[in-house]
Task: structure prediction
Amino acid sequence: MTKPIILTGDRPTGKLHIGHFVGSLENRVKLQNTGKYDPYIMIADMQALTDNARDPEKIHNSLFQVALDYLAVGLDPAKSTIFIQSQIPALNELTMIYMNLVSVARLERNPTVKHEIQQKSFNESVPAGFLTYPVSQAADITAFKATVVPVGDDQEPMLEQTREIVRSFNRAYHTDVLVEPEGYFPPKGEGRIPGLDGNAKMSKSLNNAIYLSDSADVIKQKVMSMYTDPNHIHVEDPGQVEGNTVFTYLDIFAPDQEHVQELKEQYAHGGLGDVKIKLYLNEVLQATLAPIRARREQYEQNPAAVADILKAGSQKANQVAERTLTEVRNAMGLNYF
Ligand code: ATP
Ligand code: MG
Result:
């Protein structure tokens, strides 16, 4: 019996952070360890080029860092196929084929892409590759016939776009070669964790993240500088819990939620200072991240082994994607000779 296939990944635009951890990595590891799925985990370097075309160095460097982060959180190459997007040429061909099934207006309506375009201040020069990256994500997902896609909330529009493409393709070419995927999202509130600055999304590109690789000192320094309630000036002042990023993180990471509840009540009432709640959050995050950092350091000392994992994973992924591409070309009648 074949297992349901998982496909997900990350752009190598920097090291991975605690937003990735709760938004996607934790779910991947959990699903991987059930043994009930066949997971493919992709380092999306082609997609990273869509807004970093002139900075390939950054992508090369980040690629190794993302691989280390994967292994550090417990993705296991014996159970998950970890591969590099640019090593799978079939993905590009599928992208070109799907591009004809999507209108420019539809691409321009994608709320995540719309928001990112504003954030990145491309102005009038949005790269065509950036506008169309949801199509390339559809290629990634469908090439592996993935049905389960563990991602953060910002990826919902990409899944909807993928399902539309699958339906259009199957209808246009009278086939059932492509399979519709479903997103697998984290519990409410964890699918898009805010940045240290209180910004709506912790992101590699926004410089507001706690990285899985941050040292104990850096974590503490970042936590102590976090955005809380700007009106909570004196310890005795009543503080705002709602929208207070320190409490948002405690909700997600603290093992003792009863204690968090007590702290919230005290904070809202007045008499609990920011320093105290930050010191508690620091303790919680240190406990979460220390074992991850330790595993990361081990792999970091063995770059050749990491390269072998990526190479073997890419070879395997390539075979699978080539098989789907052949089916797609057959369905379209593109195999002339
Ligand atoms: P970039 O700024 O380069 O786009 P990013 O931080 O958004 O980087 P991606 O590689 O685009 O990271 O996203 C990888 C995965 O992590 C996606 O599934 C995304 O939904 C999830 N993710 C990213 N940021 C967060 C966050 N702040 N909270 C929860 N999940 C997140
Ligand atoms: Mg992103």
About this structure: The longest strand covers residues 5-10.
